[in-house]
Specification:
heterodimer, A: about 525 residues, alpha+beta, four-stranded mixed sheet, two-stranded antiparallel sheet, 20 helices, B: about 500 residues, mainly alpha, two-stranded antiparallel ribbon, 2 strands, about 75% helix, about 0% strand
Chain lengths: ~525, ~500
């Protein structure tokens, strides 16, 4: 399926619209703050519309994953080709975009979160031009990762996100922003180097035969890397269940685990979240963390099915530890943002556990949980942001009785809280249920232990509600204004999604079901 | 005989133009007093004309002056790089507060600069051990004097002194090595040496010793660990333009010489496709030795750069580290490895000169060389701040900048040849390098400028030069096919 606007594919549009916005912003003078904000809003707004078009036109039956034919909205152009020379063979890098059931939900999530992030950035007054320039660059990077099917392209988009994020935390963040920014940068950069090395090793191990000329072509094409027939004899990563394949899997896994973040690679996250400005926290938790699990599913699982099966218990165990550890840590926090940061670690653990189940249920649950967590955690961070804007405080003990002061706000925030808790009828419940059901089939004990994490989660969420929204209002906080229309606007779409997907999750599940079933078969079948 | 000489001269025009330029500069410096920067303009014109003649040689493969030097795509590639660097350095030098203090002696500066260019261009083409040594010495002696050009400053004199002493000793060692090699093989022509070696020699010990000594001499020129001690002091002491020239051009020339020397002399051409490298000398594992040097350079360079506060010293250590990365490509003497070296050098030229240029601009305006003194610069001069950020990010090796492509190719070549440990070290040290590069960025942006600090503005010429460096750095990150093909096509060495 193809869809073009002015002769350019829709995926290129959705990835590069923010760049167009960014260039427009760069051309404007610093003073036109509102124009700058509006351009950012329009650019991300167009992305939402395009995502809607993709959602409507997406063929739910096609498989994707390793089959180039069944990817949708594909765009493939030769980017860099160096003709054959002795000893090396032909070199090929493609501009290769396409989506399947695995990525389509992520694209929708990214566009929504990016748009809401802009609305929530409206009251940023410091260096507006620089802020939105970097913001839009970041959005392009995120969107690009979800649609790239060429490893080289994937890597470029992946690393493009680093620098904007570094500045967005470091320049617009809280008091310890510098420390948080460099910590984030270093952690992800280490992961990036690991991925770079693995990518190169894969590149030299994979060569497909060009049907037209019969030449052997080295390629970064991810789909070619999934086909065992394409591995050259004697390549570093050729064969099945070799030590180097395990090493390569582990290198990639560490990279993605840093992003997710899984215990024990998670320590950058609380710092980054606490120091980042609200919209950046929203982006960070809403989209960036999902890149990690997405990478696992797009790259680790299908390219290294043998190693995936070999390490699957390890992965599930890390998921379990993250769930429990994250929840306990969240319980111990008295900073609202840190609490949500740790709850993110816990909830992303559920995703990892779900996909580690290697069955359709768990996988669907895991990917749905990625989407749901993105939505829920965005609501939570926005809630903190609203309070912080009014009081400059984030301590859980600083508040109380907010419900009397700000009824609209309390209503919306509580829905987010309950969704995070996993209350039936809201979206978090559905995906957690699926994840745990799938995981239970595969690992009885690990799942049983993990499920206790839900109880702890209920504990800290209810306790937070009690501390913040209920009880006596401290004297200082008696004149709080309820939500402004702009703030309501940024909450409403998310709340609608929370409720809608809680009651009727099928539209989301239908999108990915066939792709994910195929992925499960592909991995458990050893890539054949 | 005359024909051969005339033919050779016709192919030697680029170098001859530089010699003529050198002479004209001396005369003009004596006679012309009225025109400002006359020497600089002559130098610039000379470089352009020389570059034009180099371009004419594209595709030529020939040997000149009775096999003393080669004119081949390989030499052309490096000469293009050298002249490009030379042009940028002249442009840098035209507006530089450090040099303005010595404006009465500026003719000297350009004369020596031309001498250095001559030596470096000869290094790119030399195929005879004697000419190689001669070229190296022409380059070195000119650069010793240039390093001490700002003679009123003690650290400049100190740097120059260290440079001479180190340089003289390593040249001596190298010359001794060369004489041993000539003794063993009874020839000074590297192709003849190659033949002699492939025919077999009994003198393994002497052969190994001679190669070791030559590596010492060349290792000094590219400032690779453990022959790097001179570099930070010299960079810090030299005028910053000369530091940039040493960091870029001198490295490019030395790598050209190193590649040609090793890949011609010690390769068994018959067994090339199978084993690739080093087959003509037994005894020492030369690839492991060079790999070890590369690893040391990366580790020492990056770790020491962490603690520097002077921007010149920081860039000096960073260039030591980069020499290590480049040397990785040389460890794998396959065409893949060498191509990656050439791609790296090409990109390194723009990004490193770029970083130096922003440092020059800041120095001209504020006089600071200290990284701590960079606080708030990003706010005071958005353009230069953004440019510096891009150059430093490129030096770190993050996409989508040229530096990433450079690292990609070097790492790729090493991985494909199975040098996993070396690549692992390169990867780790790359992460370390992020610290000190990003520190500059941090200082520029994460601190507010003081109340009294005004905005830093630049004139149009400076901006044009900046963009001339910035655009390739960015463009090479997303579209590098032309460079790749240029480097690949330039792999062809005369008779090889």
């Amino acid at each position: 399926m193809e869809l073009q606007i002015f002769g350019i594919g829709i995926l290129t549009w959705i990835v590069f619209i923010p760049i167009v916005g960014m260039i427009t912003i760069l051309l404007l003078p610093d003073k036109n703050r509102n124009a700058i904000r509006w351009i950012a809003a329009i650019a991300t707004g167009i992305q939402v519309i395009l995502a809607g078009v993709i959602f409507a036109a997406f063929d739910r039956t096609k498989l994707g994953i390793n089959d180039a034919e069944s990817f949708q909205f594909m765009e493939k152009f030769s980017w860099i080709t160096v003709e054959a020379v002795p000893w090396v063979g032909r070199i090929e890098i493609n501009y290769f975009l396409g989506i399947d059931g695995l990525s389509v939900l992520m694209i929708i999530l990214t566009s929504i979160i990016a748009f809401i992030g802009v609305i929530s950035s409206w009251n940023i007054d410091k260096m507006v031009k620089g802020y939105f320039t970097l913001y839009l660059l970041l959005v392009t990077g995120m969107m690009g990762v979800f649609v790239a099917l060429d490893f080289f392209l994937f890597f470029i988009f992946w690393e493009v996100m680093l620098l904007p994020m570094y500045f967005l935390i470091g320049l617009w963040g809280g008091p310890r922003r510098e420390y948080a920014a460099i910590k984030f940068f270093l952690y992800t950069f280490v992961g990036g180097i690991l991925m770079l090395l693995t990518m190169l090793a894969l590149y030299f191990s994979v060569a497909y035969t060009d049907p037209a000329t019969g030449q052997s072509v080295h390629t970064f094409n991810i789909l070619h890397m999934m086909n065992p027939a394409n591995y050259v004899d004697g390549g570093l990563l050729s064969g099945v269940d070799t030590t180097w394949r395990y090493v390569a899997w582990m290198a990639l896994f560490i990279n993605f685990a840093i992003k997710i973040p899984l215990f024990p690679f998670h320590t950058w996250l609380p710092d980054a979240h606490v120091e980042a400005p609200t919209p950046i926290s929203v982006i960070l938790a809403g989209v960036l963390l999902k890149l990690g699990t997405y990478g696992l599913l797009r790259i680790n699982f299908p390219i290294f099915p043998d190693a995936t099966v070999y390490f699957i218990y390890f992965m599930a165990a890390l998921g379990m530890i993250s769930i429990i550890y994250g929840a306990f840590c969240a319980m111990a926090q008295d900073d609202f943002k840190k609490l949500i940061a740790y709850s993110s670690i816990s909830h992303m653990g559920i995703v990892v556990l779900g996909i580690a189940a290697l069955n359709t249920q768990g996988m669907v649950g895991g990917v749905l949980q990625m989407f749901n967590h993105g939505i829920i955690t965005a609501v939570l961070f926005l809630s903190v942001g609203v309070l912080y804007d009014r009081t400059q405080k984030r301590g859980l003990y600083d508040f109380g009785g907010i419900a009397n002061q700000m009824p609209k706000y309390t209503g919306l925030a509580m829905i987010g809280m309950f969704a995070a808790l996993g209350l039936p009828g809201l979206n978090g419940f559905v995906s957690e249920l699926f994840s745990f059901l799938g995981a239970f089939e595969a690992y009885k004990w690990i799942t049983i232990i993990s499920v206790t994490g839900i109880i702890i989660t209920a504990g800290y969420i209810l306790w937070t509600i009690q501390r913040v929204f209920l009880g006596e209002t401290p004297e200082k906080l008696t004149n709080l204004k309820d939500l402004t229309p702009r703030e309501i606007l940024m909450f409403v779409p998310l709340i609608v999604l929370i409720i809608l997907l809680g009651i009727y999750p099928s539209p989301a599940i239908e999108l990915m079901n066939s792709s994910l079933s195929h992925l499960v078969e592909f991995v458990t079948g050893g890539g054949l | 005989m005359v024909e051969q000489t005339l033919h050779s001269i016709s192919l030697y025009l680029p170098e001859i133009v530089i010699v003529v330029t050198l002479c004209v500069i001396i005369v003009a410096d004596l006679l012309v007093k009225g025109i400002k920067q006359v020497a600089a303009w002559i130098m610039l014109a000379g470089l352009f004309v020389s570059g034009f003649f180099v371009m004419l040689q594209t595709g030529t493969t020939d040997s000149i002056f009775y096999d003393m030097a080669a004119v081949d795509p390989f030499a052309v590639f490096f000469k293009v790089l050298l002249i490009l660097t030379g042009i940028f350095i002249v442009l840098f030098s035209m507006k530089n507060t450090e040099l303005e203090e010595y404006s009465t002696r500026i003719g000297e500066y350009y004369m020596l600069f031309a001498g250095m260019m001559l030596g470096m261009m000869m290094m790119a083409g030399a195929t005879n051990l004697l000419l190689m040594f001669l070229a190296l010495e022409v380059t070195s002696i000119s650069s010793y004097v240039l390093a001490g050009y700002t003679k009123k400053s003690t650290r400049s004199s100190e740097g120059a002194m260290k440079y001479i002493i180190y340089g003289a000793v390593s040249s001596g060692i190298m010359l001794y090595g060369i004489s041993l090699l000539i003794g063993v093989t009874a020839s000074t022509d590297i192709y003849a040496i190659n033949e002699a070696l492939n025919a077999g020699t009994e003198q393994t010990l002497i052969l190994n010793l001679s190669v070791l000594m030559i590596i010492v001499g060349l290792g000094f020129k590219i400032a690779v660990v453990p022959f790097h001690f001179w570099a930070p002091d010299v960079y810090e002491g030299s005028p910053i333009t000369i530091a940039a020239l040493l960091a870029v051009a001198s490295k490019i020339a030395a790598f050209a010489l190193l590649i040609r020397f090793f890949s011609v002399t010690f390769i068994d051409s018959a067994g090339l496709s199978v084993t690739g490298t080093w087959s003509s000398i037994e005894g020492i594992h030369w690839d492991v030795l060079l790999g070890g040097m590369a690893a040391l350079a990366m580790i020492v360079g990056n770790l020491t750069a962490l603690r520097q506060d002077n921007i010149k010293r920081m860039l000096a250590y960073s260039s030591i580290a980069h020499a290590g990365y480049i040397l990785m490509g040389l460890v794998i003497l396959t065409s893949e490895g060498l191509t990656s070296v050439m791609v790296y050098l090409f990109i390194y030229l723009f990004m490193n000169l770029g970083a130096f240029y922003v440092a020059i601009l800041f120095m001209n305006k504020t006089g600071t060389e200290s990284i701590e003194g960079y606080k708030g610069f990003g706010h005071r001069s958005p353009l230069a701040g953004v440019a510096m950020t891009i150059f430093l990010v490129s030096l770190t090796g993050l996409p989508p900048t040229g530096g990433f492509v450079a690292k990609l190719y070097i790492f790729g070549a090493a991985i494909s040849a199975g040098w996993i440990w070396l690549v692992a070290i390169a990867g780790i040290t790359t992460v370390i390098s992020l610290f000190y590069y990003i520190r500059v960025v941090r200082n520029m942006y994460f601190f507010k400028p003081g109340e009294s600090d005004e905005a830093i503005t630049f004139d149009t010429t400076s901006k044009i030069i900046l963009f001339a460096l910035l655009i390739p750095t960015l463009l090479l990150g997303v579209y590098f096919q032309p460079v790749l093909e240029f480097a690949r096509n330039s792999m062809l060495m005369f008779g090889f």
